[in-house]
Amino acid sequence: MSGFLAALSRVPPLLAAHVTLSLAAIALGLAIAAPLAIVAARRPRVAAVALGFASLIQTVPALALLALFFPLLLLVGGGALPALGFLPSLLALTLYALLPLLRNGVASLRGIDPAVIEAADAVGMTPAQKLRLVEAPLAAPVAIAGLRTAAVWTIGAATLSTTVGQPSLGDLIFAGLQTQSWSLVLAGCLAAAALALAVDALMGLVERGIAARRRGLWLAALAVLAGGMLAATAPLWWPAKGGDRPLVTVGAKNFAEQYILARLIGDRLERAGYRVEYRDGLGSAVIFGAVASGAVDVYVDYAGTIWTNEMKRADVPDRAAMLRTIGEWTARTRGVRLVAALGFENAYAFAMREPVARARGIATLADLAAQSPSLRLGSDLEFLERPEWAAVRRAYPMRFAAATPFSPTFMYQALASGRVDAITAFSSDGRIAAEHLRVLTDPKHAIPGYDAILLVAPGRAKDARFLAALRPLAGRIGVEAMRQANYRVDREADKQSPEQAAAWLAGAIRLQ
Amino acid sequence: MQPPALAWEQVTKLYGDTAAVADVSLAVDGGSFVALVGTSGSGKSTLLKMANRLVEPTRGRVLLGGEDVTRGPAPAVRRRIGYVFQNIGLFPHLTVAENVAIGPRISGQPVPDVAQLLDLLELPRDVAPRMPAELSGGQRQRVGIARALAPGAKLLLLDEAFGALDPVTRDALGQRLRALHDELGLTTILVTHDMAEALLLATRVVVMKAGRVVADETPAALLAGGGGDAAQALVAVPRDQAARLAAVR
Q: ABC transmembrane type-1 domain location, by residue (chain A) (predicted)?
């Protein structure tokens, strides 16, 4: 219960961001759909094209639509437009809101009795007078019903904007799902659902008031709606105390270790006098772009990920040479500064349950490859698409009976329950030791080193106070300490929050 | 010489290859009550709607008080012409009073005396604050006529204005209209397919067939057998009905 209350306390700023984003998307959608609907109601061909386009957009899953704007904005903006955060979320949600707005808008105008339109013309109304005095009031109830649908859809879909780095109530849901912290999921879902229901109910009153021509009713409902929006976005108008302190953004990918390290870094930056914001749940492909563009000021990545995904290298040098090369490359090409390696490695490690591995006599990746046709592989969501997987298969030709991606937590459960025989675990994961898994060795060195590294945005690369706050982390975090911290968040019973685990880790490595 | 209140000059309206109105010339003097009569599809409504530009002619021109109606914007012409049609088209979201006052309101004129207009149409004054949906069909059409007269229009166009009303209401409203025409000094053009209505109300009956004017006579001349076959075919209907009614007795 206290976990749920703690989760609820995170709602207000996220709610403010969520409401702002949804409101902006609906307003922009309305600004596009209203004139388009007016033209489309008079020209069937425009209606066919506009509604066809809006329906097509609707068939794209919202999550994919959001993700598509990242490369699109990079391509179109050439780096001048922010490809992460508010802008892509706004554009995707606006497109998503178009269909109900357009469909109801056109239907509402076409539904007006032609005799009324003929009368409006015959008494000598100009097109503008006809729209204002006749068409708009008669179309309003049906058009507002469309606005209601659009609002509910947008508020729901806005939770997905977390994945492109825009804060929303989805932050709670995604973080909760990754760490199996159900109080977070519940808080996020309840807040989003309550917001959608409240907006729907109030707009329903506006719709009824207009249909019944009760001015008092719809004006009151509108006033409550506006007041509610103002109250919900209050945290944005009155920023938290310490508003004069510089604001920095700490990024994190979508698993426990990343959340913990982000809090550890954030805590140090707060002590150094910064205000800290977190962008959690970013994908590997997105987060490096985010630090290069300055949308994120600092985050932890892994040497092998940059090496294979960003630098497109297939060779595997020793760890020290690799770190040196990466530091030079990020600085030269993107202005991103590699401040330090943290000391531990989080490599891809193929793991099996000890009894199964012993029974089948599998100790190396070569053994695994030999028996792969009769085995099922579970991976995280990214691995099967990553170049490391291609490298592994080049070195150890393997062909599994099945290969299934899971979110990390569920991947371990799939192994434990026997649904898969081997998984692509992470070497710093506390569950390897806790669940007595056997990590297979890599005799051909197909998998590169995965030293955890601190990457800092170009804008902070020369900020002495910022760098001084991060430097004590260099080489400080051993793999055993990291595993234990991770396990505190990942374990089934007696779960800790990333903040608690970060505090424990700070103590364990005597960092004060 | 005073120009005619309304004149069509060699007006043609084509829909695709079909001529709804074919080369019609017709002049209407101020103060006259003209009935445009014909069967469905004879082009009478199309001819009427070219006067207030609800339909634009393919060829020819329409003169209002000697001036081409296509000069200037369409709304300006329409505000000078009262128009009443079968489906009435009262604004369902406005009260009766707001409906009646809409013409002066959109052209920035002072608010008309709605009570007096309701009196003219023999409507009780307490309908003013009510919504159109609360009225009977006959009452609604009376409001429609009051709305058409409110801006002080001297030219009144009626397109099958009584077509959807029951015979009793229809007869009463027709007589009321004729009285208003005389009291207010209007020029009235009534499109109808009912020759009896035309003969009883109008000072001049114009018969159309297939887009052309085939007869243009006074009611007395038509009843005396003038106007040709098409006109006489229409006159024969009420005459035969009257004879059969007499025979029943």
A: 15-203
Do A133 and A68 belong to one domain? yes
Q: Is B228 left (phi over 0), alpha (psi -120 to 50) or beta?
A: left
pLDDT digits (tens, 9 = 90+) for A232-285: 888 877 655 555 788 899 999 888 899 999 999 999 999 999 999 888 878 777
Minimal C-alpha gap between A126 and chain B (Å): 6
Closest CA to B93 of A59, A119, A271, A256: A119
Among A217, A237, A257, residue at a domain's last position: A237
**A339 and A352 fall within a common domain:** no
Q: pLDDT > 70: what percent of chain B?
A: 100
Same domain for A81 and A230: yes
> Rounded CA gap, A153 and A173, in Å?
17
Tell me which range, A35-44, A119-128, A174-183, is most confidently predicted by mean pLDDT.
Answer: A119-128
Domain boundary among A188, A214, A237: A237
Distance in Å, alpha carbon of A132 to nearest chain B alpha carbon: 11
Domain of residue A471, residue span:
247-345+449-508
CB contact under 8 A, A119 and B73: no
How far apart are alpha carbons A296 and A205 in whole angstroms? 42
Structure tokens at A379: 């991976």
Is B73 in contact with A126 (Cβ distance < 8 A)?
Answer: yes
Mind listing the domains of chain B with CATH numbers? 1-31+38-75+185-249 (3.40.50.300)
Q: Which residues of chain B have a CB within 8 Å of the CB of A129?
A: 75, 106
